[in-house]
Amino acid sequence: MAEAHQAVAFSFQITHNGLEVDFDHEVLSSIWHSGTHSIIKHCQRHWHDLVAGLYPLQPYTLALFIFASLILKNVGLDPSFGLIAFIDHHVPLEYLAPSLALYLSCVLYGFLAWIGLILFIRYSLKILFLYKAWMYEPRGKISVTTRIWMALVQLLKGHNPRLCSYQGSLPNLPVPKLEDTLRRFLLTVRPILNDEQYSELEKLAAEFQQGVGKRMQRYLRLKSWWATNYVTDWWEEYVYLRGRIPVMVNSNFYVMDAIHAKPTHIQAARAANCVHSILKFRACLERQECPPLQLQNLVPLCSAQYERVFNTTRIPGLETDHSRHWHDSSHIVVYHRGKFFKLPCYRKRQLLNPAELEVLFNRILDDESEPYVGEKHLAALTAAERTSWAQARQTYFHKGVNKNSLDTIEKAAFFVALDEEEYCYNPADSNCMDEWASNMLHGNCHNRWFDKSFTFVVMKNGHIGLNVEHS
Q1: Which residues contact 382 (CB under 8 A, 6 or more apart)?
Q2: Is the pLDDT of residue 1 over 50?
Q3: What's the mean pLDDT when you consider all of the chain?
Q4: Measured distance CA(111)–CA(64) in Å, rounded
Q5: Which of 77, 165, 152 is closest to 118 using CA atoms?
Q6: Is the pLDDT score of 405 beyond 70?
Q7: Which one of 74, 79, 276, 296 counts the least CB within 10 Å of its CB?
């Protein structure tokens, strides 16, 4: 009950002297900063999306277009070839003075011209990015057609793009012809079938092509008209999220540290520096300050998946899982010696510096308390068969402390595991790398939260690694 009373921002009681109200200024201040931070982040996110959507033009160029339209109209030139007069005549502005109505028509024309140029550049790039012949040309021998294409792309793609600046210019994934799909399918299965089996499959493929295949191809083409990638949602659901086998080992993958060097052998210092850098990288992603990946520094790749690197968790379901993403998270969850710790990483919207984070990590490492009942092996649920985990979640985590604790883990920016084991490269031990890789892949099966987008692992000797959820 003491903890509950401390969590209340204000309380009141009725006495003989009247109503007495007691305010907890620290809690109210925390609520105020949390609310303002959420509003600011929401506005910043929409602003960055707007700027990326206008690329390669900048928002201030709208004023240049409007100003140019007004200047040219005032000196007797018509940059719109009659469109300003058309707007002035058809837009109901008769209640305004003629000169003011003309100025408003110029402003509207400048805005339309600005939007038109953005759309022209965007769809021109989308058409140019459909060109694929450059990939098949030998290095150093570039055809004239490719050179012209490269020049046009460089002319239109602009400079200093943001992370998502080219998202609106990427072409939709094309739907292959049904005949080509069946031909590639038969070519793929031929090595594993005998002549009789292959002949039977050829007949089935021909029947499919002449029957239901045509109707399915039409549905697929219809979907491709309104989905930039007609296969993404199906691939994510049927390849990853509908799988009922455990994600540990079967789906999740691992990343290892450099084996010959590490900046420090102090576990808390390595964890603090890496967490600080990771969260700075997250801030760059949110502000879209990272440049997009580009092939040959020319053709951009899709950047949509970057959003789900952080603040993302795979939620188990009885028949299919789903991915849930939160727009913001100010804490991480740390696991050490069977205990979970919520570690706030910000103070008044400012990221804690590495020294401050190291102090917090040291407090976690020095904590000698025993885990609560059931806490030590809780993460093993995420390594279980998916339906069993979903049933346990519905039964034991739908309310109360269990639900709040699970929400804290799932809403964290990412999960950190401070391992008590240590691994390093030893040329005399042929199994050392296998043991290291196994630890990154599954740990002891209950010290990784396999449903988080990634678990950041810091070993006792300062080596690091990642366990990454694949979907």
Answers
A1: 247, 248, 389, 448, 449, 450, 451
A2: no
A3: 87
A4: 10
A5: 165
A6: yes
A7: 296
Strands (E), 241-375: 253-256, 294-295, 299-300, 312-315, 322-325, 331-336, 339-344, 346-347, 350-351
Reduced to 3 states (helix: H, G, I; strand: E, B; else coil), residue 10 is: strand
Task: Dump pLDDT digits (tens) for 409-443.
Answer: 999 999 999 999 999 888 888 888 999 999 999 99
Catalytic annotation present for 470: yes
Only one residue has tokens 């510096």, namely 353
Q: How many CA within 13 A on the CB side of residue 230?
A: 16
Measured N-to-C along each axis, helices 98-128 and 83-90 cross at an angle, to the nearest 10 degrees, of: 120
- Give the tens place of pLDDT for each residue, 221-230: 998 888 888 8
Among candidate residues 360, 309, 305, 308, the one with its CA nearest the CA of residue 336: 360
Global pTM? 0.84
β-pairing verdict for 464-468 and 253-256: antiparallel
Q: Is 237 exposed, middle or buried (0-12, 13-18, 19+ CB in 10 A)?
A: middle
Query: What pLDDT digit, counting tens, does each position of 143-193 carry?
Result: 999 999 999 999 998 888 999 999 989 998 889 999 999 999 999 999 999
Q: Which residue among 42, 322, 325, 470 is the active-site one? A: 470
Let me know the angle formed at the C-alpha of 465 by 461 and 469, rounded to the nearest 5 degrees: 150
SS3 255: strand
What one-character-per-residue DSSP string does 120-135 give? HHHHHHHHHTT--GGG
As a whole number of angstroms, the distance between CA 390 and CA 277 comes to 34
Dist. CA 275–CA 345, nearest whole Å: 9
Q: Categorize the per-residue pLDDT at 13 as very low, low, confident or very high, splitting at 50, 70 and 90.
A: low
Strand partners, 351: 346
Displacement of CA 161 from its chain's centroid (Å): 18
Residue 312's beta-bridge partner residues?
Answer: 325
Secondary structure percentages of the chain, helix, strand, coil, to 5:
50, 15, 35
Segment 90-119 mean pLDDT: 79
Residue 285 has pLDDT above 80, yes or no: yes
